[in-house]
Amino acid sequence: EPIDYQEFKKRRSQKTQYVRRSLEYFALLFMAMLGKRISFKRLQAWGSRLGVMAYYLLKKDRGIAEKQIHMAFPELSPETQQQYVYQCFQNFGKTLLEFFTLDRMIQEFDQHFSVYGEAILEEALREKGAIVLGMHLGNWEFIIPYFVKKNYPATAVMADLADSRLTQFFQKQR
After folding, report:
1. Which runs of consecutive H residues, i.e. helices, occur in the chain?
2. CA R_g for the chain
C-alpha cells in the first residue's frame, strides 16, 4: 500500500521557499569548505551531530521517515522504530559531510574502502561493457570517483533539484 505524503506537504510562499533554499545553498557551501579542511574522523563526528540537529529541526522529514520505518518494520516497538529514525538522521548527517571529501577520499581510496567482485566488473567491461545499478544507500556517491580512479567509463544520472543552484553545486561536486 503506497504512503500518502499529503499530510507532509507544506504550503510556503515563494519568498519563504527562496529564503530557505538560499540558506540550504550557503550551508552546503560552508560544509564543502569544511570537507576540504577537516579530518575525516572529525567530519564524521560533526556529521553525526548535524544529523541529530536535523532530526529535531526537520519535523516534516522526521515524520516521513517515521512513517516509512513503521511501514518497513511494523513488528518493531514504537521505541525501536524511533531509534531507527534517529540513527538514520545521524547517518545522513555523516554521509552528507563525507560527500564533501570526495576528492580526498578517492586519493586515499585503499585506506577507506574495500571492493568486492571487482574482477567480475573488470571482465564485463572487457567483454561487452556493463550497466551498474546502485542503491541510494549509504555513501553511494563514492562509486563514480572510484570508477574514475580505475579509468572505467562512467556516467551518472541525476534528477534536477528544485533549486538550480543546488543542482549545479552537486553536479560540480560529483
Report:
1. 14-37, 40-57, 59-72, 78-99, 102-107, 109-112, 118-127, 143-149, 164-173
2. 19
- Residue that has been written with the C-alpha cell 578517492 in this structure: 106
- C-alpha closest to that of 51 among 93, 87, 88: 93
Q: What is the DSSP string of 114-138?
A: --SSHHHHHHHHHHT-------S-S
pLDDT digits (tens, 9 = 90+) for 118-148: 899 889 988 888 887 776 666 777 777 788 8
C-alpha cell at 162: 528544485
Q: Which of 21, 27, 88 is nearest to 61 (CA)?
A: 88
CA 164 to chain centre: 18
pTM above 0.85, yes or no: no
Scan for cell 531509534, then name that residue. 83
- Give the DSSP H or E segment for 171: helix 164-173
Sequence-ordered list of residues with C-beta below 8 angstroms from that of 47, at least 6 positions apart, any chain: 90, 93, 94, 95, 96, 97, 98
